[in-house]
Specification:
It contains five helices and eleven strands. The chain has about 200 residues and is of the alpha+beta class. The strands form four sheets. A five-stranded antiparallel β-sheet has the order 8-5-6-7-9. Strands 1-2 form a two-stranded antiparallel sheet. The longest helix is centred in the last third of the chain and has 15 residues, at about 175-190. InterPro entries: ADH-like_N (IPR013154), GroES-like_sf (IPR011032), Lipid_raft_assoc_Zn_ADH (IPR052585).
Length: about 200
């Protein structure tokens, strides 16, 4: 397998700067295109979503981003609300919906801090930032390019004397939805709520 080092310019819809982002991509193992659920108009998901069979594989939008091959995406009420209420003029078309996902890192930007511990092949979960989603990047695709700060390794679960990594399906729901649940639990603890209280 030959690694080819290339300098590419991300599409304007995903670029945070106009400067090319140097990146190493194993061109032999990554496809040029991907499938993704997309929409061009605002509306109910069942009426506006369609499967796009060959969108270009996303480039890294910045040197601090990663490319993740998505294993699972989480469907959340917020994704449906964004599809219905956000006017089309504010979205890049085609728009890929949803924010939360799990998957495997297949490419790492040149300036991802080593302290993040990211590596190709790492199993992660994360979220697409809303501004990036409005610019076309979303989780209902085979691949997503996101800032490295938006992904973390799968948690290790400890129970019954054993330990193991959380599964990809469960981890996909930990992003926005998981953070919302955590904040609500912290607020409940502050208010002195206990199990069984109504």
């Amino acid at each position: 397998m030959t690694k080819s080092k290339s300098t590419t310019t991300p599409p304007a819809s995903l670029a945070s700067t106009s400067a090319p982002v140097p990146q190493e991509r194993d061109s032999a193992s990554l496809p040029q295109t991907m499938r993704a659920w997309t929409h061009h108009l605002a509306g109910v998901p069942s009426t506006v979503l369609s499967l796009s069979p060959s969108l270009p594989l996303p480039n890294l939008p910045s040197p601090t981003s990663v490319l993740v091959r998505i294993s699972h995406a989480s469907l959340a009420p917020g994704g449906s609300i964004m599809m219905q209420l956000c006017p089309s003029i504010f979205r890049t078309k085609p728009c890929i919906p949803e924010l939360d996902f799990s998957g495997i890192i297949v490419e790492i930007g040149t300036n991802v801090p080593e302290a993040r511990g990211m590596r190709v092949g790492m199993r992660v979960f994360g979220s697409v930032l809303v501004p990036a989603q409005l610019k076309g990047a979303g989780a209902l695709a085979e691949y997503v390019a996101v800032e490295a700060e938006g992904v973390v390794g799968l948690p290790v679960l400890r129970s019954g004397g054993g330990e193991g990594e959380m599964g990809m399906a469960k981890a996909a729901a930990l992003g926005v939805s998981g953070a919302t649940a955590l904040v609500l639990m912290e607020e409940a603890q502050k208010k002195g709520l206990k199990a069984g209280m109504k």
